[in-house]
User: Which sequence fits this backbone?
């Protein structure tokens, strides 16, 4: 059977894609296979994880390589291409906020000399769009471009506290994610914590893995008073009391907010844009 451009249905044996599934969906499913633990993959690995026959994967990979979304290493494995980073850097919710926030992140980094993080919400997770780290800083779990849970990270709690009520209820009613090194809060405690974050503008989380750290985060607002990002510092637990760190984090977040056009008196509600 000859494949059409619209469906590209393969003739090879094996698991076939859903009838009529657009080529773009299957190409994106190949890109989605990559993760922190899967940064370089062979053709067979890409096909297996994406759930498609190898001949179909090969055709799509060739197109992705030609465009620059993927690159082929000398050993035959594939990695994410620089072209994707170029496109992703144009995201207004990522690059725009990052560009304005970076000078303040750098100032905060000079004070702490450990980690300074900047994140935005994408659907039900936080996405790290910047991280400044000292060479000898304590180990942390998340990288730039990586995703973090909302319920068990300081940056996530800030973004969750600023979400609309319906979204919060959806997250609160779901079984908690089990994340090593962090004590999961019961629903009642989590509700009280979110209320405190909205009242104080500060979230704090301690974790024991991959190292013993304390994270302190504060919201960044846009001109409409919506929470568009979360700024956080991460330091070794016991090095500096969180109540000493909180004013510096909050001041930096407020400075970024002012540069985004936020006026404190414009809104008393902490809300995020709908991001999924």
Assistant:
């Amino acid at each position: 059977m000859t494949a059409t451009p619209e469906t590209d249905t393969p003739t090879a044996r094996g698991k076939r894609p859903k009838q009529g599934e657009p080529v773009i969906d299957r190409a994106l499913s190949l890109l989605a296979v990559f993760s922190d633990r899967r940064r370089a993959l062979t053709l067979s690995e890409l096909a297996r994880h994406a759930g498609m026959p190898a001949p179909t994967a090969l055709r799509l990979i060739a197109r992705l390589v030609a465009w620059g979304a993927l690159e082929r290493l000398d050993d035959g494995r594939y990695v994410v291409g620089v072209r994707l980073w170029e496109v992703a850097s144009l995201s207004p919710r990522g690059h725009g906020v990052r560009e304005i926030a970076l000078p303040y992140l750098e100032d905060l980094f000079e004070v702490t000399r450990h980690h300074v993080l900047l994140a935005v919400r994408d659907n039900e997770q936080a996405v790290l769009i910047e991280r400044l780290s000292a060479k000898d800083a304590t180990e942390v779990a998340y990288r730039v471009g990586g995703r973090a849970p909302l319920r068990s990270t300081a940056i996530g709690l800030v973004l969750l506290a600023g979400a609309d009520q319906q979204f919060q209820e959806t997250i609160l009613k779901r079984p908690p994610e089990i994340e090593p090194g962090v004590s999961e809060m019961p629903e009642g405690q989590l509700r009280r914590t979110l209320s405190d974050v909205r009242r104080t503008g500060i979230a704090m989380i301690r974790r024991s893995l991959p190292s013993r750290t304390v994270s302190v985060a504060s919201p960044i607002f846009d001109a409409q008073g919506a929470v568009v990002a979360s700024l956080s510092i991460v330091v070794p637990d016991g090095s500096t009391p969180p109540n000493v760190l909180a004013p510096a984090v909050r001041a930096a977040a407020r400075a970024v907010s002012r540069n985004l056009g936020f006026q404190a008196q414009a809104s008393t509600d902490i809300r995020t844009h709908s991001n999924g």
The beta strands are 70-72, 78-80, 115-122, 125-133, 147-149, 203-207, 213-221, 226-236, 271-272. The radius of gyration is 21 Å. Residues 54 and 274 are 38 Å apart (CA to CA).
